[in-house]
Amino acid sequence: MNWLGLLVLLTVAILPTVAGMALGMWDNCGGTCGLRPMVSDSITPDYSMTRIVGGTDAKPGGWPWMVSIQHPRIPGTNHFCGGSLIRADWVLTAAHCFDVLFNTSMLYVVIGATQLTQPGPGAQVRRIKKLLRHENYERRDMSYDIALLQLSKPVECSPYIQLACVADPILGVSVSEKHTCWVAGWGATSAKNKSPSDRLQEAKVRIINLKLCNSSFWYSGKVHPYNLCAGYPEGSIDTCQGDSGGPLMCQDNHSDSWWVVGVTSWGKSCGKARRPGIYTSTQYFYEWILVHMAMNWLGLLVLLTVARLAHNLQYPCGGSCGLRAPQPDYSSVTYSYGNVAYDYGSTRIVGGVGAAHASWPWLVSIQHPLSPNLGHWCGGSLITADWVLTAAHCFDKIDNISMLYVVLGATQFTQPGPGAVVRNVKQVVTHPYYKRVDFRYDIALLQLDNPVQCSTYIQLACVADPTLKVSKLSNCWIAGWGATTARAQAPTDRLQEAKVQLINGPLCNGSDWYAGKVHPYNLCAGYPQGNIDACQGDSGGPLMCQDNNAEYWWVVGITSWGEGCARPKQPGVYISTQDFYDWIEYNMRAHHAAESAS
């Protein structure tokens, strides 16, 4: 093993190893998490600090990963938010806790206490070194309400201080309405009493079905897909002001361990009927947590080492991405108004024109020898020398990936030209939450058996990161070898391209458009009138927008689905790459690290 492999192994390769076990197993707390040594276990939302009503006093050490985030100028106990200790120097909490108290130099964290005025000998206090709020957090609707706090120095674990297990998407706890779980915090004990409790409170709650929670008589569509609802239909027991950031915890079905499955986010008042507490799902943000703690672990050296290893961008492709060869003048081409969609099969371009050679040099064709008509199956985007970004639904009917191959650098299949190369598929990584029934989390990564060499015909795509303002981009295009009409199911021999417009999400999800079927992490693109769209065979291909201040292009979406091809008010629906940027980073990084260490 070389030094680089060892370094990456120590920093990143262990991440997938512990996935499904616990984040807390990363450090010096006895190799365990989620254990309680001191306890024998057998409709306008109120977006203020959130909230335990109807609970009872917790025993000392009852929830040893619970922390109190405090500010010296807050009256009483100084408490204003809760959190969960997930590593000896990291706390998981809610982003909205810091809407006002954004100056972390005044904040401190109390760990190991049950009663704040009498914390006891097991309590420890730490200052805050760093605050990381989710980059997409929005106060107005509490979207992406999750944050990480890095402590000034690690805590020492004891019977009163233990690490929480964070529920992972694959091997961790399966959260459903069948689960009975617990909440805990120092928040207000009634809706009228806004003052925090001196003693930690706990309460048993039930997970409530998300569709029921989001129905018209409950929260009426205000709950996000990455939220959990917990409480009781009749109310009475709930979190309240001061419990924000604290954990929603469920016991493992097969052991004494407890999982933090949610972060207390918001709710309508406290303990109201049909107004349960709303929590940010830790499973949904598991990769975000992993990536951000890993990137801050050993500092800049590891960041640079791992980032280069994860991306490969800097090596074979001149340190650039999203650049195209000089293109012909399309000013004489007249485009009808149109849209981009998918018909819950493979996907497609209608109303486009033939693309020039090397015009979209990161576009790949995923092929299968048993697929009729040129072997083309799905599209994809080359994002590193050996990784392709595509759609998860492309592999619904593929039982054996060894039959697949990828064609890169070609524009016309029957005459691929000297710039084309072919690679076999080493592995496919689909999102663990992907569901065929409604195309949620329709994203996948495909690893090539050997890296490609970049050329005029083969370049890397730039993946839109969370800071890019996609809605401000206006020059957007789709491309693919899919069917050129809704009736023609066969792929086209020559790559097609079409200019499209990004369509406002609420409009696209309106009652006479897609009527709520579009997920928050989707993009809509096309035209209200139809006529231009993706079609069968374009699935997995990119939605691309040119940067407003440069020549390069961003892959902002992955062709996912749509109703028919090029129908009015039925535009193409794409997976936003911004929303899955951390997932992409984490999975490429983890697999490269494992390979380097072997």
Structural description of this entry:
The chain has 598 residues and is of the alpha+beta class. The chain folds into two domains: 3-293, Beta Barrel (Thrombin, subunit H); 312-593, Beta Barrel (Thrombin, subunit H). It has six helices and 28 strands. It has helices at residues 3-18, 210-213, 286-295, 300-311, 505-508, 581-597; strands at 56-57, 66-70, 79-87, 90-93, 108-111, 124-133, 147-151, 165-166, 180-185, 201-208, 227-231, 247-251, 258-266, 277-281, 353-354, 363-367, 376-384, 387-390, 405-408, 421-430, 444-448, 462-463, 476-480, 496-503, 522-526, 542-546, 553-561, 572-576. It has a six-stranded antiparallel beta barrel with strand order 9-10-11-14-13-12. A six-stranded antiparallel β-barrel has the order 2-3-4-7-6-5. It is elongated and about 80 Å long. The N and C termini lie close together (7 Å). Residues 52-294, 349-589 form the Peptidase S1 domain. Keywords: Disulfide bond, Hydrolase, Membrane, Protease, Serine protease, Signal, Transmembrane, Transmembrane helix.
Jot down its keywords.
598 residues, alpha+beta, Thrombin, subunit H, 2 domains, 6-stranded antiparallel barrel, 6-stranded antiparallel beta barrel, 28 strands, 11% helix, 26% strand, disordered N terminus, Trypsin_dom, EC 3.4.21.10
